[in-house]
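Suppose a colleague, Dr. K., hands you the sequence of a protein chain of 154 amino acids and asks what its three-dimensional shape might be. Before reaching for any lab equipment, you can write down a predicted structure in token form. Begin with the sequence itself:
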Amino acid sequence: MTPQVGQPAPAFDARSDDGQHIASSALRGRWVVLYFYPKASTPGCSIEAQRFEQALPEFERAGAVVVGVSTDTEASQAKFRDQCRLSFPLLPDGDKTISRAYGVLGGLTGLLGVAARQTFLIDPQGTLVHHWKTVNPASHAAEVLRVLHEKQRS
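The predicted structure, expressed as tokens, is then:
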């Protein structure tokens, strides 16, 4: 089941592609852009990741952290990070715990992994404030920034 806007975002605790421990509780006090993608090193996912990387200074100025999640292995995620020259963390979710909590798995039992690109914007208090169910990889980072700035003003 997908969490609803206005509800607390599901907690997560994982090791990133470079071995760092990333817990949602440690990100409190910052805006979090948690984006899910189907497969590392594929064209659409690469474009989306590169756009987030290009916009990363703007996200950081806005007090936001970007975190990518897919059901790929840690090795696949690390290779993807290196290929795309990414500096934000990628979370390998092989056991699908995070993806299941956010309701992004495909197939009847979630065996297919992340079904489609989806993004969640979480405010500094840990509340889900926006959910993108469909994503254009080329323009998504700019759209997330636009909504982030709107939410910060309101």
